[in-house]
Model the fold of this input.
Amino acid sequence: MAGGVHTIPAGVQDGTAIPAVAKVSANTRVMAQTGPLSIATDVLTFPGPSTVGNWLASNQRTLVNGVPTIAQSSVGQAIVPGPPPVPSPAVVTTADPRVKAM
Done:
């Protein structure tokens, strides 16, 4: 089922419910009302225990420049650094209200 497309960094939370503060993306062309669409190669930056995050499962039918997009159904991970790095789930909490994708 189609879900809202992720656009703003603060719309993603790590496993400790801390929102991301920045997003590094190769997409600068495809925009929604709230900003550029997030894609599977984006890297997220978190304050606090998690430092960076990436996406593990993304949309399969909606592509931007050949790269899958990120929506509310996508699965990501935030990395907590340590002697063994500890992955924590990254979840889309806020999506663009007008754009849906699969």
In short: The chain is about 0% helix and 40% strand. The CA atoms of residues 55 and 76 lie 4 Å apart. The chain has a mean pLDDT of 93.
